[in-house]
Amino acid sequence: MAVFDLSIDQLHTHRSASAEPEDFASFWERTLEEARSHPLDVSFTPVAGPLRAVEVHDVSFAGFGGHPVRGWLTLPAVAEEPLPLVVEFAGYGGGRGLPHTQLLHACAGYAHFVMDTRGQGAGWGGGDTPDPAGSGPSLPGFMTRGIDDPDLYYYRRVYTDAVRAVEAARSHPLTDAASTVVIGTSQGGGIALAAGGLVPDLAGVAPHVPFLCDFPRAITLTDRRPYREIGDYLKTFRDRGAAARRTLSYFDGVHFAARGRAPALFAAALEDRTCPPSTVFAAFNAYAGEDKRIEVYEFNDHEGGGPHHEAVQLDWLAGLPGFGTRA
User: Fold this and answer.
1) Could you say which of 16, 60, 272, 309 is catalytic?
2) CB atoms within 10 A of CB 253
3) d(CA 235, CA 11)
4) Phi, psi at residue 231, to the nearest 5°?
5) How far is it, in rounded angstroms, from Cα 326 to Cα 213?
6) Catalytic residue check, 223
7) What is the pLDDT of residues 237-282, one digit of tens each?
8) I need a labelling partner for 118 at 20 to 30 A (CA). Which of 67, 82, 125, 135 fits?
9) Cα–Cα distance, 135 to 64 (Å, whole number)
10) b/e map of 54-78 (b: 16 or more CB within 10 Å)?
């Protein structure tokens, strides 16, 4: 596959055409206030098993609407004092998976929390969190669930869950709230960007080939799913384009990036037709924090940097205040 998007010079100056709604800030303030009206109701249940070098907890907490959301908290077995915390979000269709698949960051000496994505997990990994909220007609998948109304849109629930996940993970006595980083790949990267814009005191944000960015360009540039779900929906509901675009503007990673202040490590792949590089650069270029960098993988598709980028990310984490000194 050849490079299909903007040139590298154009990518570094690309800006999204997504217009931020005038009530964007108040929409999210209201959303989080509603969520916090429910007790966090977090529980950490130790998981017995053959993993002797780590300690695993099955976590439950109250997300959007007070709905229970699951996760895994994995700690080095020798932990005796609060550790830097890495909160991770899953890619599209995936769930929290099994504990033995989530060992990288605990092996690096950090506390690691992975959030189950409500309603997902049947595509890969396996999930344990249902989405009890419904919606009107939608295409199979998640991109069009409630797309006519920002209050009903699926990702309103997911982004709220993400903020509550950070709060839940920080409540454990062996996590250091002051040294908290959010990470994720694809959908997980988009969720991490949202958390980075909604949680003001993070130590870092690391979106790898993030999804859910620059919707106006993404839904007209690529014919791959998941973005294509929106186009297929509008093929049938031809008169709902304006409403759909308005809804998406409340969930565009570009607008959350404009609120991010923590050090940030982005990654883009120039042959990525799932999350085209221009959509990733739109978020990177909008990112408000001064300490930001982007890794570019010239000949890669949506796998991006893969294990190579994991190594880059571990080096980046070790350079953050509080991480390298105690990891």
Assistant:
1) 272
2) 32
3) 30
4) -60, -40
5) 34
6) no
7) 999 999 999 999 999 999 999 999 999 999 999 999 999 999 999 9
8) 82
9) 15
10) bbbbbbbbbbbeebbbbbbbbbbee
Q: Which of 186, 208, 214, 309 is catalytic?
A: 186
What is the H or E stretch that residue 219 is in?
helix 215-221
Distance between CA atoms of residues 190 and 239, nearest Å? 28
Q: Is-catalytic flag, 60?
A: no
Residue 118 and residue 157 in contact, taking contact as beta carbons nearer than 8 Å: yes
- Measured distance CA(167)–CA(8) in Å, rounded: 38
d(CA 16, CA 252): 10
Q: Beta partners for 244?
A: none
- Pick the catalytic residue from 58, 135, 301, 302: 302
The rounded Cα 63 to chain-centroid distance in angstroms is 15
- 326: pLDDT strictly greater than 50: no
Active site residue 186: yes
